[in-house]
Amino acid sequence: ERVLTQSPATLSALPGEGATLSCRASQSIYSNLAWYQQKPGQGPRLLIYGASTRATGIPARFSGRGSGTEFTLTINSLQSEDFAVYYCHQYNNWPLTFGGGTKVEIK
Amino acid sequence: EVQLVESGGGLVQPGGSLRLSCAASGFTFNSHAMTWVRQAPGKGLEWVSLISGSGGSTYYADSVKGRFSISRDNSKTTLYLQMNSLRAEDTAVYYCAKVNYYESSGYSDFDFWGQGTLVTVSS
Hints:
The structure holds 2 protein chains of 2 kinds.
Chain A: E1 4-7, E2 10-13, E3 19-25, E4 33-38, E5 45-49, E6 53-54, E7 62-67, E8 70-75, E9 85-90, E10 97-98, E11 102-106
Parallel strand pairs in A: 2-11
Antiparallel strand pairs in A: 1-3, 3-8, 4-5, 4-9, 5-6, 7-8, 9-10, 9-11
Chain B: E1 3-7, E2 10-12, E3 18-25, E4 34-39, E5 45-51, E6 58-60, E7 68-73, E8 78-83, E9 92-102, E10 106-113, E11 117-121
Parallel strand pairs in B: 2-11
Antiparallel strand pairs in B: 1-3, 3-8, 4-5, 4-9, 5-6, 7-8, 9-10, 9-11
């Protein structure tokens, strides 16, 4: 099983600041990684797939990088609506797995 | 507009059964794989099961294999999850999601999700 480890567990930042979230895979998953955003009481929303391709309608301040075992999601200039929990997800191997999540909170 | 609406959740005793449904609209249902993902209270996301567009291929997490069964009715554009032998650790919000597919990578990201339905397993 490909284990995904996200860090930090919680990130505190001010609106307007940037944020970088990390996702590390236990073995190579090539670029078969997606990122999701989840707000309380809602289903997740797809942000990034293929490690670096923004989904339809996702603002350009969200960007993804990485391949193999190391991946990052960067949010430039945090907006109020960006404070949420973010999950990475690998679809390279069965079983499909998610990281434990990073909560981005207002400092 | 893609819409996914889950239903069928509720309170069930340990060892009991429940069937979840996910009504889909806004896309060509039989052309897309579908999946179930769950989230225990205050916890992260856990993939549960996936079914191909035709229904001919199914995949399960080890934690539910042999107890849960995924199916679909393409004529009704509805996805199902039959859950048997339920345990306390199955308590979670269950989400259905639409699965993307690319020739280069096979089954891929989950591009649309429902709002979820809560299943509580307790005596």
